[in-house]
Amino acid sequence: MRAFIQNLAAMFSDQAPIREATLAIPGSQSKASRGDHQHPRLTSASWNVTDANGEATFTFTRTFAAKPTIDLSYEEATNNQPCIFKVKSWVTNANGEYTGMVAKGYRLQTLPASITLLGSLASFSVTINAPAGINVSCIAVQVS
Length: 144
What we know:
9% of the residues lie in helices and 38% in strands. By secondary structure, the protein is mainly beta. Strand 6 (83-92) and strand 7 form a beta hairpin.
């Protein structure tokens, strides 16, 4: 029995799994990863609610050494005009790692029913008030 356990232990690797690849590869190692191995987290996903200024602050569930790509989306129960969101600012730690970000939202508005002068269209803003109280989703992904 002891020899069986020693042979079994020799089949498992103490090395961390390799990073993900763009294309799948079957692998050629003769050892398997241990049951307690952990793959690196590549993403952070979280929700927050916009404040009165239409801003939502997110703290990532992991740090990023380089600026991550960001996807911002929202849900709103009412039938209001659509919103757009952008990254307003980044939050970093003392090591320069990205730990979060602040999103800024803008509510879009429709064009007036009749625009009589080109000048009025030139001064027209497509955004109006800040969308307050909206659930915003932030997905941050490590750049590959």
